[in-house]
């Protein structure tokens, strides 16, 4: 295994790790995106302690309080619930669903993508099944699965995760086909390495960068998917706060209290934009062509 080990040790993922970090740190957009994500994660994780009010606490005497009202920095909704507190807990729910959904797509999609790219005999079967699922638009498939399973946070996460599996399979399959043709994989096979060893020791570690980038793309899609499902009543159910349910509740009062709809909409926009910026920056940093610049 000495030849294969030596070649693998020189792959971009391992040898250029510090260069990748430096490229990201030199990108102002990447730093901005990371700062936004860190703030969002802190707000979500520590929402029970950071939120100024309980997210379900109503106060009809302060309904439709505008932003800047003492005690309500971002105002209140039609039931007098604090918008900032509900956004914090809504971020918590959105990130929870997104992480569960992406984890589902990784657990199923990565092994199937490896098998499809490595074993030509079963590639046709997995690829045709993937094409069949991809025939349905992502959100349509997620809505349909959520409607079948019922409205809840867990079912929303599973529905979005299943809808993201085909994309993960295709990305991993494509990278597996590319890596399989490289010299270090051929060297491992010549030295007698088994298929499981080659996939787990040589192909999967070198495909990690592609999987990481795809994860940063899947996370904002899952956040938007959760918002759509909750908006349609197929995700997190009231009175539990969700950015999607906040938009659904506020739409009928948009002319009277626009902040109740604008604030959660801005939160969704900033969160998804931050993930996309970080994902693009990470993809550029991991691009082998960038190392020549």
UniProtKB/TrEMBL annotation:
Coiled coil: none
GO biological process, one term: transmembrane transport
PROSITE patterns named in the record: ABC_TM1
Segments forming domain ABC transmembrane type-1: 91-279
Subcellular location: Cell membrane
Transmembrane segments: 24-51, 95-119, 131-148, 154-172, 210-236, 257-278
Entry keyword set: Cell membrane, Membrane, Transmembrane, Transmembrane helix, Transport
Predominant location: membrane
A Pfam family reported for this protein in Swiss-Prot or TrEMBL: BPD_transp_1
CDD domains to which the protein is assigned, alphabetical: TM_PBP2
Gene Ontology cellular component list: plasma membrane
Keyword Calcium: no
Topology in membrane: Multi-pass membrane protein
Family that this chain belongs to: Belongs to the binding-protein-dependent transport system permease family.
PANTHER family linked: OLIGOPEPTIDE TRANSPORT SYSTEM PERMEASE PROTEIN APPC, PEPTIDE ABC TRANSPORTER PERMEASE PROTEIN
Protein name, UniProt field: ABC transporter permease
Species per Swiss-Prot/TrEMBL record: Kribbella pittospori
Organism ancestry: Bacteria, Bacillati, Actinomycetota, Actinomycetes, Propionibacteriales
